[in-house]
Structures are given as structure tokens and as C-alpha cells.
Amino acid sequence: MVYKGACYCQEIKYEIDISSPDEARTSLCHCKNCKLQKDSLTEGCYSTDVLTSFALAAFGLTTKIPVKAFSYTRESAKPTVHEADNGSGSLLHREFCSKCGTGILEYGAAAANEFRYVMTGTLEDPGSLPPKGEFFCLYREKWMPEIPGIFHKDRLKE
What was the pLDDT predicted at 38? Predict the structure, then answer.
């Protein structure tokens, strides 16, 4: 199965090639870094609904895939790369479009050779890979309900 995605301005395009949706894990993250990162659901969206815009900035939404499943298309521009300490002493690598600012993917140093965490909102059909879990629920905004039917972890390692 091939899933396609792009940034808002369409300069960066990519494909995810997996044999089954089970190879992907979409998750909400309520950690401070994900809240600071411009959320993938709001990329390119200009909502007139202030509450919707506010709610979407309260968590990150990424889809974890095997590194070999991700590729930029031939016509894609090269992403800009930013690397920095994620606040816990680990190096976090993020790729984004320098033209429109859309975040495309991220990964930590420990996952560099195994996984990519794609910003789910950049997929052509983000609903095709629904969430399977929530991380750092300890930091979930009090007004945000728990999503039923998926796993919930207060911390990363439980």
C-alpha cells in the first residue's frame, strides 16, 4: 500500500510504502515538544473556528513507520533539517519545507536507523491511518477527552 503526502505548498512530496496499515502506528503526543511543534493537523489550514485551531495545537500527531518505507519523490524539493536536544538529552531530527514551513517528519537519535515519525496531517488522506495510542497523557489538556479504544500512556516508558 502506498500512502502519499506533501507539504502545504507542494514543494516537498513523499511516499510511504508499507504492506499493511498494521506497519504504521499513528499516535497523539501530549509532551511539551509536540505541543511546541506546529501541529501537523493545522498545516495549511486556516480555520475560522478558533476553538478547533486551539484544540489542534494541544498535541502532536505522528505516524511511526519503518525507515525503509519512507521516500521523497523524484520531483520533491529537499527538506530543511533541524537538529536539537529534545529536552531530555537526546538529539531530535526534524525535516520541514523551508518555503511554507510544514513539518514533514521527525525522529530521535535512537530511532534514526529504524523509524520515521511522519506528521500525519501531511498525508493526502490522514484518516487512512487512525490513531492507535496516546503518549504523555499526564500532560493532556484538562479540557481534552481521552480517546476511547486506543492505548494510553502517562509517560513514554510504562
Answer: 52
